[in-house]
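One-letter codes give the sequence; the fold follows as tokens. An example follows:
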Amino acid sequence: MRKLFIPLLLFSALEANEKNGFFIEAGFETGLLEGTQTQEKRHTTTKNTYGTYSYLPTDSVLKRAANLFTDAKSISQLTFSSLSPIKVLYVGGKLTIENFLPYNLNNVKLSLKDAQGNAIDLGVIETIPKHSKMVLPGEAFDSLKEAFDKIDPYTFFFPKFEATSTSISDTNTQRVFETLNKIKTNLIMKYSNENPNNFNTCPYNNNGNTKNDCWQNFTPQTAEEFTNLMLNMIAVLDSQSWGDAILNAPFEFTNSSTDCDNYPSKCVNPGVNGRVDSKVDQQYILNKQGIINNFRKKIEIDAVVLKNSGVVGLANGYGNDGEYGTLGVEAYALEPQKLFGNDLKTI
């Protein structure tokens, strides 16, 4: 079984209909996994198939499914984490499952670890729809109530749920979990519906004395596309091929704010041989392993959809080492075809 450990976290609103998604297979040179959902042979499965725990068929799941991304207010209350794109919460006797992935997942087993660290199998869910939220009654899984009944009321217990593909999961589900298992970088993203006041490049209005707002609220479409973009980016940054490409690049990387057009003598860009002029301050040359480490460290961002900003994207970092930031992208640039071409494989 391929595993994904899922922290117990809060979340909000799900979508039962199909829509093609995109996911990076490995490094940037390998392109995107095909987003189409391939039709697999349907396995007839019942609770007796697994014997000791429950099985939730698709019909039962879809009755409790809703859109994850709905209106701007509810979207702004969501928090996405690349380490837990499927979030599970048990509170008030109900189990909530939130799927940020652009894939319908098939025959997924849920389990949890109790206060003593023992793994408890809960059951198998036949379908977890893409970009979805579902609220299930606790009694849907016999083992769930039993596990919590055994917990001392004075014991602080913050369990972790685990989702795994099974032997009868379709190829797409197994492939998705295999890709998720390779992701180690923790990107936490909030969907902002506020004016990004730390962006200072918005165009001035006709009076020339104040700047127009250059952002817009999230819609279900832009929330899906922004989330998919982050999943693709993290899968690339965590890939072995991307790390190797940085380490083996036949040129140096630099980071300087010098305007090379107006101050060429102070320019810190690599020359035709890929090396920085030895006469230039060497402090701006970046360590290649340091680049990889910086991209793979934990970061929290506020995502913003730009509108008439005059640029394709904006980003600001803050904190002691840039561990927090704001990322804005024009809505049109979020479209997969704009980013990766019509074949979805060319950046």
Remarks:
- The two ends are 33 Å apart (CA to CA).
